[in-house]
Amino acid sequence: MSLLTGNWHPLGNECFYRRFELCSLRWKDEPGVNLSKCFVAAAPFSGCIALIRNDRINNKEFDVKQEISVFTPFGCLISTFKVERLTYLGWSFDEELLCIQEDGSVSVFDIFGLYKQTFTIDKEVRDTKVYECKLFNHDRVTGIAVITFANKLLVINNIKDPKPRYYPLVLGVDFTKCVWAVVAGDGQQTQILVSYETKMYLMKSDSYTELMWNIQSPFQSVTNIALSFNYKNVTILTNTGVLWIGILYANELKKNCEFETDGKISPNFLMWCGEDAVAGVWRDILLIVGKDKDWLKFDIEPPVHLVEEIDGIRIISNDVHEFLQQVPNVVVDVLRIGSVAAGALLLEATKEYHKRTHKADEYMKMLTDRQETESAVVQCIKTAGHEYSISTQKMLLRAASFGKFFVPEMDPKTFVTMCQTLRVLNAVRNQNIGIPLTYKQLEYLSIDSLIQKLVLRRHYCVAIRIAKYLKIPEE
After folding, report:
1. Of 115, 117, 188, 417, which alpha carbon lies 20 to 30 A from 199's?
2. Cα 252 from Cα 272, distance rounded (Å)
3. Could you tell me which residue ranges the Vps16 N-terminal domain spans (predicted)?
4. What is the pTM of this model?
């Protein structure tokens, strides 16, 4: 059991985070790939990685003509193509590569570099030019928020139906000197959280509100704003190194805590790791801060690129692709050393049974007396889903199967469904397919979306086999 928890790191008393390797990156053997000299754009949900080799990364405008290389999450080259006058590069929810140019033109490519379409953000932007833009996802579609050099803020909520909406100006506020983030939860109106000097504004398409927020530490400006995947949790970093963590609620920012980072320089990355902690990278340190001011740090070897996922953070370096996540509660209950949770007892009972010792009877009697045998089976099934290691999955599913003998009336559907899901996940995690999805990411996406990802990558045979295996109509 100690080996299973060897990469767990406590954050506070009950919460743990773990960092594990998804794969070794094959591009380390390819000449010219060095993240310190590249602009990196990685698609969410364990998607592809686009690189632009560029020694002048800090420039607002890329070179007139740039070569884009698209890789799988395993670092295998898929395509290379050139695009002119890029201002920003990013991925849509459907894993289309969006190339945004300074005149507001957005060219859309698939992962093989095949051109799909071009649309214009707005005619006015052709003259005023794009100063800064951000992509955001909501309701399973992608939108674009843009600030122009003419101090205009506009939003396209859905790139499939690009209708720009200009947001109101704020008297005395220069958007080009602001720090901002998009707030776009499912089923909600798209809003923009804007910081100018020490003030915070929540921008809507027809109005804006100055937000009340409580911060004790003195500061002169905000350097970073980040929202969690569900757009409910907010973190704000000030120029004095204070990390403010809280919740965006109506017209107010409610504080959880303030944390002194002791860093007066802006981090390379600042984002949420799940819904309960914030992750920031300063040079060779990855800092995790919880809502109760608990913290832990990991040493990293720069350069790295971080990608926010629904259940954690992908860490991409020159050599390896890793994942950092909060250990799910059910996994802590079952695998934590010394745990007496139902699933932990069933796991121990299974081990003792295979050793042919009487302790197996003692563990099962404890579960029977507590009337928790069925609960133990469910816990082992759920824990298997959250484990990336196939051997650990098998160990937990064997325990669940063993426990099912003591609950003959239990519906086997949960067990069968998890076995099927893990078989699919392990298949697409193979380097030949190259989609290192987690169970929670697949839950959010759905099997249908995974099949679409396979079709997008031209893995037609695998997509058909999965559809047949899960009895999904092939059309």
Report:
1. 188
2. 20
3. 5-416
4. 0.94
